[in-house]
Amino acid sequence: MKVYRSIEEFIPPPKTVVTSGTFDGVHFGHQQILKQITTAAREEGAETVMITYWPHPRFVLFDDPQKHPKLLTTLEEKIKLLEQNGLDHLIVLEFNKEFSKLTSMEFIQHILIDGIQTNKLVIGYDHKFGRNQEGSFDYLKEHAPSFGFEVEEIPKQELEEVAVSSTKIREALHQGDVKRANKYLRYRYMIHGTVTDGNKLGRKIGFPTANIKVDVDYKLIPKNGTYAVEVEINQKRYMGMLNIGNKPTVTDGSQKTIEVNIFHFNENIYGEEISVRFVDFLRNEQKFSNVDELIHQLSIDKQNTLQLFQS
Which residues does the UniProt record annotate as the domain Riboflavin kinase (predicted)? Predict the structure, then answer.
């Protein structure tokens, strides 16, 4: 997959099948769109092109940080997921105040027609574009003959009678329901970060942990609690259990941390990059009467995690 950081970098191939959107999470619904454009491109001897935007439009359109969404994927994570889904070309357009003022007609002419020379455009059922989201599938369909390209809409994708969306996945993660989130994503939700130095209490009680500092503040961190996870470090994968929270048994609870106990692992990895994929929620974070109770519960958590990986 080739990645372009502006429309000017892109040199259009002879035929293109195009889609557009933020594609946060590259979830099941997004994957259906990617499958559709790949099939159409194969039938028509074309190459697939996606237009996406960075930063997320809401970061630019809303000054109030409370209105900024926590994202399922960083740009780097999204690029890797799109490549895994067989995309040929990814155009990452900078979303700024000036870009947000483009009318739907200006977007179509400058980006879709002049920039990409689109032959076919495939979009999701609720996709809008242009200033004030004035552009829609109906608008495109009505004017398609004059644009010189075909337009196709992907209907709402249903999974267990629930429309798959980035919003519903975020809600599941906020509730700690990583199994439901993973079902909608069709892969295990992940976080990436750097291993930082901690208070080393875990090592003293027989459960050494790696403290994870997530490198961006907009990444969605699931609900506080203990999780069964898959850990990747130095291109190797391990089982583990992870705690998100304030460690009320051993600290004053003023600082939130993300700590992972990696099974069958005993290496110094401070400063290393680490990835964690969530398998299942084990329990809510709780305050124990003493450290011995905590150790007993951690032993149960480890056994439950091992059983999950064996099932």
Answer: 184-310
Where in the chain are the domains? 2-163, 188-310
| Backbone region of residue 247 per phi and psi (left: phi > 0; alpha: psi in -120 to 50; beta: other values) | left
The runs of H, that is alpha helices, within the chain are: 28-44, 57-61, 75-84, 97-100, 104-107, 137-147, 166-174, 178-185, 201-204, 291-310
Alpha helices by DSSP H, 211-290: none
Helix-helix angle 178-185:166-174, to 10 degrees? 160
CATH class (in words) of the domain with range 2-163 = alpha beta
Q: For domain 188-310, which architecture applies?
A: Beta Barrel (2.40)
CA 158 to chain centroid, in Å, comes to 19
Task: Tell me: cis bond preceding 248? Omega within 30 of 0 counts.
Answer: no
Count of all residues that appear for the chain in the document: 311
pTM confidence score: 0.91
Q: Measured between alpha carbons, how far is 144 from 138 in angstroms, rounded to an integer?
A: 10
Q: Do 22 and 71 contact (CB within 8 A), yes or no?
A: no
Quote the tokens at residue 118.
Answer: 């689109």
Please name which of 244, 57, 88 lies closest in space to residue 166, comparing C-alpha atoms: 57
